[in-house]
Specification:
The chain is an alpha+beta fold and about 90 residues long. It is built from three helices and five strands.
Length: about 90
């Protein structure tokens, strides 16, 4: 099952410069684990050491915030798009 993962340029740098990558899995968590395995430098920026999402990294599944769809337990299907948006702080 192929899911498209869209990365901002700050994270794409950890995926060989790719802004769009393919992932597989039945849930968002499995898809993120697949990406983390194939891009080891990107994995720690998407989830913590226990495999849970960081509160400051937002995931959108087909333009819907996954926090309202079960988080990493949200089911994904072939053709779905995941957009990753890390929070930016500054002042």
């Amino acid at each position: 099952m192929a899911i498209t993962v869209n990365l901002p340029s700050v994270l794409a740098a950890h995926a060989g410069g790719a802004r769009t990558i393919e992932a597989t899995g039945r849930t968002l968590g499995e898809a993120v684990a697949d990406v983390a395995t194939r891009y080891p430098a990107l994995g720690p920026r998407l989830r913590d050491a226990q495999g849970k999402p960081y509160p400051f990294v937002n995931f959108y599944l087909n333009d819907q915030d996954v926090r309202f769809r079960g988080g990493f337990a949200a089911p994904v299907q072939d053709g779905d798009e995941v957009t990753v948006i890390p929070a930016i702080a500054g002042g």
